[in-house]
User: Fold Adenine DNA glycosylase from Spirosoma montaniterrae.
Amino acid sequence: MDWQSDANDIEAGFAPTLEAWYERHKRDLPWRHTRDPYRIWLSEVILQQTRVAQGKPYYERFIDAYPTIADMARADERELLRLWQGLGYYSRARNLHQTARYVTDELAGKFPDSFQKLLKMKGIGVYTAAAVASFAFGERVAVVDGNVYRVLARVFGIADDITTTTAKKTFAALAQRLIQQANDPAIYNQAIMEFGAIQCTPVLPDCLLCPLQQQCIAYQTGRQQKLPVKAKKSPVRERYFQYIVFRNGNRIAMRERLGRDIWQNLYEFCCLETDEPKARLSEFDLPDMVAGLVQQGVLSAEPVEGVQLLSHQRIRAVFYEIVLPDTVTDTLPMGLQWYSAAAVHDLPKPVLITNYLAKRFG
DNA sequence: AATGCGGGGGA
DNA sequence: TCCCCAGCATT
Assistant:
């Protein structure tokens, strides 16, 4: 099994290589001069989804204001939030305060000293628990953050979508295997994140000077830019449907939706899609056939707005009800046909249409 | 499993 | 612009 021994060899050398790299390249950061769990915890919370450059001055300010966890516990929450101002994700500050008080008052100031205990604290999730447990207490538990996903995906050529639960498990298991070979779990955890932050960067990683160049699958196959794979959260597409609801007595003009779009084979009213939101008939152009028909009728009520959220689209609809006189015998455009109220009821329709009918006609 | 939650920096 | 950043809590 050649591939297996190769993979194991790469895994075996991984942690020590990064630890050696770290000793040569690490930045001098204030929270790296302490093993005080309070300070490490504070730094980790500040750095959640936050770059070192942005978080560093805040860390200094907080340590000045609250040198110990008891100081933070006694502080006024508004004061904490003021210090936090500008960092974002303000629940972090509230959770910080809550945990500071809990540790001070309920745990007699003794900071939780294991991964499992740390996990129970407000604002401490899997990442932060692993970070504090390893940095402050030397526990051999691997951190998995955005840097780790990137480094592991590239070095080991893992193309799984990191936004999925199964991929997260895969990466966590690999990371936990890798840390077993580390000389010092605290150093190793710092090392892989520092490596991701300044060498194996999201764009333009410095592969030419990389100590893992020879074993990096991404480098060997030229896929640095493609890894890690992260599903783009497709922005919800905004669409604007203007529905002309033609009425004649108790009949309504409806058509079947055809073609490669939403609501295939469902029935709707005369539908005109616009690029921008509209609120009145006069704000957009009607096809000639439709315009001619509209002119013969009267707008019978204020336009009605409706919204329908699909997985990747938000349909904002406006319904304009036009009542036509019996004298109109024009052929209906756009494949529209007249349906009695009972027939309309039986047609398959999008919820958006059904809701409108219910709202308008009960 | 999906969302909401912030603000800044770099390409 | 878009993406990403030492993620977490809630539903």
